Amino acid sequence: MSGRMIVDKAVKVVLFASAIISILIVLAIGFFIFRESLDAWAKIGISEMLFKSVWRPGQDQYGILAMIVGSVSVTFGAILMGVPLALGCAIFLAEIAPAGVQSIVRPAVQLLAGIPSVVYGLFGLVILVPMIRKLNVPGNSGFGLLASSIVLAVMILPTIASIAEDAIRAVPENYRQGSLALGATKWQTITKVVLPAGKSGIIAAIILGIGRALGETMAMIMVIGNSVIMPKPLTANPLTFFLSQARTLTGNIAVEINYATGLHANALFATGVVLFALIMIINASARWIITHDQRSSEKAR
Amino acid sequence: MKYAKKSLLVVLSGLMCLALIAACGSKSTPTPAAPVAEATEAPKVTEATEAPQGESAISLSGSTTVQPLAEKLAEAFMAANAGVRIDVQGGGSSVGVKAAGEGTSDIGMASRDVKDTEMTEFPNLQVFVIARDGIAIVAHPEVPVGDLTVDQVRDIFSGKTTNWKDVGGEDQSIILVSREEGSGTRAAFEEMVMGKETVIAATAILQPSNGSVRTTVSTTPYSIGYLSFGYLDESVKALSIGGVAPTEPNAADGTYPIVRPLNMLTNGEPTGAVKQFLDFILSEAGQKMVVEDGYIAVK
Hints:
The complex is a heterodimer of chains A (301) and B (299).
Chain A: H1 2-44, H2 46-51, E1 55-56, E2 61-62, H3 65-96, H4 99-114, H5 117-133, H6 145-169, H7 173-181, H8 186-197, H9 199-215, H10 218-224, H11 249-256, H12 262-300
Antiparallel strand pairs in A: 1-2
Helix pairs in contact in A: 1-12, 3-6, 3-9, 4-6, 5-6, 5-10, 6-9, 6-10, 7-8, 9-12, 11-12
Chain B: H1 2-28, H2 33-50, E1 56-62, H3 67-80, E2 84-91, H4 93-102, E3 107-110, H5 116-121, E4 125-139, E5 147-148, H6 150-158, E6 175-179, H7 184-194, E7 205-207, H8 210-219, E8 223-228, E9 237-241, H9 248-252, E10 259-267, H10 272-282, H11 284-292
Parallel strand pairs in B: 1-2, 1-3, 5-9, 6-7, 6-8
Antiparallel strand pairs in B: 3-10, 4-8, 4-9, 4-10
C-alpha cells in the first residue's frame, strides 16, 4: 500500500519537475540571448538595426533589414511550393489512399523529417544549384532564393503534411456521410465540406511550417549565397527575383559568429532576438487560430 | 516477476527524481555554483605563478590559419623541452589580438596585420612575424583569363568590372566569391588589394571557409575568388598577378604582391618559456617546419 503511494507521489514530482525544467530552459535561453544583445540595441539603435540594410561590421554598420527580407522571401518561396504539395499529400493520405498505400506513403513522407539538414544542403549544392545556373540570366550564379526555396519546401513538407493530415482526420465522419448522401462527389465532399471543417488545423499546420522554415540554417547557408543584399530581380522580368542571392537571419549568425567579437557579436545576438521574436509570434498565432476556432465552433453547436 | 518490474520502476523513478532535484537545485541557487567555479580556476592561477620554478604553461589563441602550424611547432617544442605545456586554441585573428592584449592568452595569433585601432587599444603589443602566406586569386578552371593586375582585381571585387570581356575574357558576367566578415583572409585581401576606400561588392557569394570558397569557385562557371596558398589545387585556376605566378618562391622574393604576414603577438617583451618558444619558431628548425607546411619562411 505505502509502496504504491510512494510511486504515485514520486511520479508526480518527476513529471512536474520535467515540465518546470522545460520552461526554465526556454526562459534561460531567451534571457541570455536578450542580455547579450542589449549592448547592440543600446549602441546601434533599434531603428538603425531593423530598418537599415547595410551590414558591414568592419565599418560599424549593422543593418539587418536585408536579412529579414531574405528570411521572409525564402520562406514565402518555400510556402508557395511546399504547401500545395504537402496539402495534396495530406488529403491523399487522409481521404483517398487505401490502408496498404498509406502504410508505405506515410513513413516515406515522415522519413523526410529525419534527414539531416546538411544532407538537404548538399543535395541543393550538387544538384539544384548547377541546374538553376543553366537558366540564362545575367548575374545568375545558381545560388539564391530559388535553390533555397526548393530545398526548404521539401524540408517543411513532412511538418505540414502530418499536422494537416491529423486535422483532416479530426473532421467528424458524419460530415462526409451527409455530404455523400446529398449526392456530392468525393472531390466535392473534400473541397466543400472536409477542408473547410478542418481549416483551422490546416492553417496551423502551414504556420508551423513557416516557423520551421524561418529557423532552418545549415541547408540555407549552403545554397543561398549568403550575400548581404536586398533580394531584387536581376533583369526587368520580376520572376528573376528568385535568382537573387540573399542571406537569412539564421545564416547571418552561423556564418559570422566564429570570428565575431565585441559589438559585432552583440549584433549577432540581436539578430537572434529578432528571429526568436518572429518565431514566437508565428507559433503564438498558430495556437491562437486553433483555440479561437475551437471556441467559435463550440458556440455554433 | 511482476513485483521485480515494479520495484525496478520505483528505483528508477527515485533516481530520476534525485537527478532532477539536483539539476534544479544548482539552477535555482546560483550562489553555491560560484565557489565551485573559483575552486576550479584556482589551480590554473597557481600553476602559472609557479611556472618559473619547474613546469610552465603557454597558452595560444587566435587565427585558425595559424593554428595548425602553431600546433605542430608546439608539439616539436614540447618534445624538446619536457616540463613545458603549450595549449593552442582557435577563435580568429581578432580574438588573437584581443587575447594577447588583455592577457587572457600568453601569445595571440593573427593572420593579418594588427590594425591601428587595435594598436591604440593595446599599445604594448609586440608583433613577431613567424611566416608569410600568399593569397592567390582563383577562377573557375574554364575561365580563359590567366593574368590580372592588382587594379583589375580590385575593380572586379568592388563591382566596377562586372563582365569577363572587360579583362580579356568571354562576354559573361563575373560571379564573385568571397569570405565572410571577420575572416583574417578577407581582412588581408581587403588590406592588400582593395585598399581603405573600396569595399567588396555586396553581391558576392560569401562562403565561411577557404575550403568552401574553393568548392564554390571550382563548381561555378565564370566565378572568381581568393584563397590562401595552402588551399590551392588543380580544381581551381590560380591567376598570375601582373605576370607573376602565385608560387612560394615568387612570394618569398617579393615579386608576388599579395602576401600577408602570419603573426604571433605578446603583451610587452616576452620572457621565460614564451620567449624560448618564439625563439624556437624563428630558429632554423622552426622555420623549416614553416616551409614544410606550405608557408614562406621569414629568415
